[in-house]
Amino acid sequence: MLDRLEQQPADALLALIKLHDADPREDKIDLGVGVYRTATGGTPVFACIKAAEAKLVAEQDTKAYLGPEGDMGFVHALMPHIFGGSDPALGGRIDGMQTPGGTGAVRLAVAMARKAGVTRILMGTPSWPNHAQILADTGVEMVGFNHAKADGTADMDALRDALRGAGSTDAVLLHGCCHNPTGVDYTNDQWDEIASLLAETGVLPIVDLAYQGLGDGMEEDAYGTRKVVAAVPEVLIAYSCDKNFGLYRDRVGAFYVLTANAEDTAKAMSNGYALARANWSMPPDHGASAVRLALTDPAMTKQWTDELDSMRARIRQVREKLAASSNAGAVNLAPLGTQQGMFAILPLSKEQILALREDHGVYMAGSGRINVAGLTMGNIDKFVSALAAVSG
Ligand code: PMP
User: Fold this and answer.
1) Which atom of ligand 1 is found nearest the CA of 179?
2) End-to-end Cα spacing for the chain
3) Which of 208, 242, 250, 285 is catalytic?
4) How far is the CA of 348 from the centre of ligand 1 (A)?
């Protein structure tokens, strides 16, 4: 029976990692995989997480099961950072649960929306490729609209048209900040308009917040999410701690629901627990416990904030140097200076991307997406010259 299964393509980015690893050139540049890298190219465990893990090992006295909601101390500790204000739970209208990574949270958001009657999800494209896969796997129709204009800013006309043309069983998936793969975020003014449009049209927003703190700052990067939460009665939020705590393989995420009242929120959460139970039963504990410890100890929280600040500063420095280089051939790098987060899409052809890899040892996704954090002050010039060589 299993021979009826069709071969699936290998994940393109994972295949790229293998090619990069096998390349003997010492000055090769890896801009493919989406993890933060320091100025020396590493992705070290955060010092605050090391400290939290040491405490966890010393103090954890059981590994007995938690429920499908996971570590609620973790879920609650994140809420002031995401929602702000003196009552981040809005009197019980917001509640959440732990999920296996931001991916688990997106999965839960889409599955819950579907269970509540959503049949189509509007989504700016290009998007994180797994978004489309999750929608397809969950049986929700994806309705794409253009996310970014050629000038490197958000295509508000396309979003406006998509929302105005939507119906009562539609949801919209929005990146809260640091758009993956384009780096093109909405400005605060645009978020104000989006919040009003959502209130006007009644389209259910699903906000995917996977990079809070890697754009302009923890507070600044929450602007859109908070605006939307304040404007409409119902929102689903998928959150990842895998980038802003450097916990990637530990799979740390959370899913939050806002409804019109505490009773509906409790009912929605009971559906979240049931969906989780049927999918992964309960989330992995370790990373979320470490985040809980880091966020409930002021010294560790300060250490984390400092680490996040330095990551953000490095990403900004690389972006500014790229934006200032006028010698990248036909590739205009100027928009990267105002875009946000780890990613950018360069307008390169398949042939140019291949030539970058084969002739210059520069590895990037087939979409032209680069991980800005893969560059350092020491290799930007080489990268820019390679762009000039393939496009000039
Ligand atoms: N949403 C977006 C937009 C992402 O880029 C990612 C990670 N690549 C995720 C969600 C999921 O992150 P996680 O690794 O926590 O599952």
Assistant:
1) 3
2) 53
3) 208
4) 24
In a domain, 54, yes or no: no
Based on the domain organization, do 253 and 341 belong to the same domain?
no
Is residue 183 in a domain?
A: yes
- How many domains does one find in the chain? 2
191 is annotated as an active-site residue = no
Residues 103-145 pLDDT 10s: 999 999 999 999 999 999 999 999 999 999 999 999 999 999 9
From 273, 296, 319, the end of a domain falls on 296
The pick from 110, 242, 250, 251 for probing ligand 1's pocket by mutation, whose C-beta has the most ligand atoms within 8 angstroms, reads 242
How far is the C-alpha of 132 from the C-alpha of 235, rounded, in Å?
A: 20
What span, in angstroms and rounded, lies between the C-alpha atoms of 144 and 280? Answer: 29
Atom 1 of ligand 1: nearest residue by CA position: 210
Question: Is there a single domain that holds both residue 306 and residue 286?
Answer: no
Q: Identify the domain containing residue 318 by its residue range.
A: 2-45+299-391
Peptide bond into 88 cis (omega under 30): no
The string of pLDDT tens digits covering residues 83-104 is 998 999 999 999 999 999 999 9
For the chain, counts of helices (H) and of strands (E): 14, 11
Per-residue tokens: 129: 């490729």
Q: Is residue 263 part of a domain?
A: yes
Domain harbouring 37, CATH code: 3.90.1150.10
Q: Which ligand 1 atom is nearest residue 253's CA?
A: 15
Dump pLDDT digits (tens) for 173-220.
Answer: 999 999 999 999 999 999 999 999 999 999 999 999 999 999 999 999
Instruction: State whether 255 and 286 are in the same domain.
Output: yes
Q: 243 catalytic, yes or no?
A: yes
Say if residue 247 is in the same domain as residue 312.
Answer: no
Ligand 1 pocket, 34 CB below 6 A? yes
Residue 12 and residue 96 in one domain: no
- At 2 the pLDDT is 96
Cut 0.90: pTM above it: yes
Q: Are residues 139 and 98 in the same domain?
A: yes
pLDDT of 326 strictly over 90:
no
**Burial environment of residue 40 by CB neighbours within 10 A (0 to 12, 13 to 18, 19 or more):** exposed
Instruction: Kindly state whether residues 316 and 244 are assigned to the same domain.
Output: no
72 and 41 fall within a common domain: no
| Torsions phi, psi for 390 (to 5 deg) | -90, -20
CA of 196 to the centre of ligand 1 (A): 27
